[in-house]
Specification:
By secondary structure, the chain is of the alpha/beta class. It has 2 domains: 9-225, Dihydropteroate synthase-like (TIM Barrel), CATH 3.20.20.20; 233-287, no CATH class. Helices cover 44% and strands 13% of the residues. The strands form 3 sheets. The protein has a 5-stranded parallel beta sheet. Strands 6-7 form a two-stranded parallel sheet. The chain has a two-stranded antiparallel ribbon with strand order 8-9. It is globular, with a radius of gyration of 22 Å.
Length: 287
């Protein structure tokens, strides 16, 4: 998701281009107010990636984003609650042929569900998602995807597993308010990794209080680790212990004395030559 002010279309497009270069495939852009609508349209027109409009509170912003050519609109049923407003979004999206993401968030769950479940439990998140999916489908909007997010890893995983057992709709994965760079990546890797290895999930975002490039790099890393994206060259290194006799940490978490190719030892080199030999091997793999 971009972090530039949407009103600054040129800056936002520059950031989108940078993220696309890193491997981002879909970009979400906030539409916080009416002043952002016209720039959002310019962003959609100039973006190399499909642009998802992120809308909260004001249903009219969702309608405007649809008219501006958004590839998808994300709505939070916890803060756009009136049926007639959701109906307007559903019908406009259906008319435009544009998908809608029903983004259920544990921090903004509907009051009736909080009262019935006592907390934003996984079951409460799923109930919210399912009833809003039915509502949109009844209004003729069948192109839907869903996200069920909590700031708690276990709740996010449980909610997504529960939903996947009851619906075939596409799931967008993420941990909301995951945190800073280090803690956010850890939480996201645990939650998203567990779900991806279960075969659950169609798109993902690693939400971080950090520059968006870090979100892309972390997301790609998670997909690679799960075997769902072609892996880049990977350094396999000893974690170090009391037996370590060379400066592995000093070699950037290091390159082992044995350089491997396809699981076989290519050759053994002294510590002083490791980095040079490793780089030579790496360059030999590049096109």
């Amino acid at each position: 998701m971009t972090c530039t002010p949407t009103r600054e279309a040129a800056a936002t497009l520059t950031q989108i281009a940078e993220l696309a270069e890193l491997g981002c495939e879909i970009i979400r852009v906030a539409v916080p107010d009416r002043a952002a609508v016209a720039p959002f349209g310019r962003i959609v027109a100039g973006s190399p990636l499909p642009v998802v409009a992120d809308v909260h509170f004001d249903y009219r912003l969702a309608l405007a984003a649809l008219d501006a050519g958004a590839a998808c609109v994300r709505v939070n049923p916890g803060n756009i609650a009136r049926r007639e407003h959701l109906r307007a979004i559903a019908r406009r999206a259906a008319a435009c042929g544009t998908p809608v993401r029903i983004g259920v968030n544990g921090g903004s769950l509907e009051k009736d569900l909080l009262e019935r479940h006592g907390a934003p439990t996984p079951a409460a998140l799923v109930e919210s998602a399912l009833r809003h999916c039915r509502f949109f489908e009844d209004e003729g909007c069948a192109a839907l995807k869903v996200s069920l997010k909590s700031s708690r890893v276990a709740a996010t995983v449980a909610a997504c597993r529960l939903f996947a057992g009851q619906s075939d709709l596409p799931l967008h994965l993420g941990v909301t308010e995951a945190g800073t760079l280090r803690s956010g990546i850890v939480k996201s890797a645990v939650a998203l990794g567990a779900l991806l290895l279960d075969g659950i999930g169609d798109t993902l975002r690693v939400s971080l209080t950090a520059p968006p490039r870090e979100e892309i790099l972390a997301g790609i890393g998670i997909l690679e680790a799960a075997g769902l994206r072609p892996a880049r060259p990977e350094i396999v290194s000893c974690p170090t212990c009391g037996r370590t006799q060379i400066d592995l940490v000093g070699l950037v978490a290091a390159v082992e004395a044995e350089i491997f190719r396809h699981g076989e030892i290519v050759r053994t080199v002294p510590e002083s030559e490791m980095l040079r030999e490793f780089l030579a091997e790496l360059h030999g793999l590049l096109p």
